[in-house]
Every structure is written in structure tokens, then in C-alpha cells.
Amino acid sequence: MNSLVLLAGCGLGDGSCIEETVLTYLALEKYNCPYQIVAVDMQSASINHIMENIEGNRNVLIESARIGRGRIQNLHSIHAEDFDCLIIPGGIGLLSNYGDNSDVRELVMYFSEHNKPIATMCAGIDFLRRLLRDDVLRKEYTTLTPDSYCCDRDRKLFYTPAFRMTRSLCDVQKGIECMIENLLSMLNEEKV
Q: Which end of the chain is less enclosed by CB atoms within 10 A, N or C?
């Protein structure tokens, strides 16, 4: 089993949420699931996270490498068919950097059309709704708590609210770990 983790930069306001990314790595390692981190080599606006204003540009791949643990690759250098699932940590950068990116759209559509699991958190639900369908996990979403997750087992879509519903890192960690554990359990059941 091999997971693909898509990053959109480094920092909640213009990239991937650092805490959600690190907790994703932690959960994958806890369940002994190898993973590859990817991002797109592109320029995007840089946000000053103190003043909350735009300050120049930055490269999304280089910024993602800050939390890519030295294992990051350019999205163009991987083959989606080599991976069993796609995991997308939250962050506004998903929408601002990748909302209209054809390469990322193609990646998400590949996993969706091949019925391979996609898991996301926080702003990731808005991202999936933009790329897939507006009703993604709408019904399931209503029963969530910060430390839980929901899924559409038929479409193999998973979501945990993470920082969208809480400021507690402990609750975010519980939700991400539970989501990853159940996603991997689904994959293991299919291989039997």
C-alpha cells in the first residue's frame, strides 16, 4: 500500500496547513504506510501570516519542500497509478494555488475515476467540492465533531474537519488518525 500526499505550499494562508501535514505523516507512519509527498512547481502569491497581506511571490514546490521532509517530488515526476490513495492536508493554498490548476485537477480526477480513496481535511472539502461535485459529503458532514471523520464509502471519499471546527491540536490529531486508520483498513479489506 502506498499513499500520495499532495501539498500546496507551506503555511495555512497560502499553502498547506503545517500541523495537519505533520499529523498526516505521523498517522501514516503509525500504520506503517509508505507515502510520497508531491507539489506543483509553480509560482504563487505569498501571504505575510502576521499582517495577512500579499508580499511577493514564491514557488509552491520549494515552499512545500519545507514540510516535505526531503522526500518531496514535483507532481510531474510521479505516476498516479503507482499509488493506492491520495491524501490532501488542508490550507487555503489548495484553493488559491490549485483551484484552477489542470495538473492537480487531473490527479484528483484520476483517483476519483479509478475509485481510489481520497482523504482530506479542513479547507480540503471546499477543494474537493470545486473539483468533483458540490454535494461531496454534504449529508455526512452534518454529524461531525472535531475529533471524528466522515466518509462516502461508495465513492471512497474521506474527510475530517481538523482546524475548521476546533483550535485543539489533540482533537485534530484524533480526527486525522482515525480517518487514516479507517482509509487504510478499507484498502486492506479490498486486498483480501
A: C
Place of cell 507532481: 75
Taking the C-alpha atoms of residue 82 and residue 67, their distance in angstroms, rounded to an integer, is 22
Euclidean distance between the first and final Cα of the chain, in Å?
13
pTM above 0.85, yes or no: yes
| Residue 9 near residue 93 (C-beta atoms within 8 A) | yes
Contact 191, 85 (CB under 8 A): no
Ramachandran category for residue 2: left, alpha or beta (phi over 0 → left; psi -120 to 50 → alpha)? beta
Buried b (16+ CB within 10 A) or exposed e, 4-19: bbbbbbbbbbbbbbbb
Instruction: Evaluate if residue 192 carries a pLDDT over 70.
Output: no
User: Which DSSP helix (H) or strand (E) runs through 151?
Assistant: strand 150-152
CA gap 88, 5 in Å, rounded: 6
Confidence of residue 141 (pLDDT cuts 50, 70, 90): confident
Q: Is the pLDDT of residue 131 over 80?
A: yes
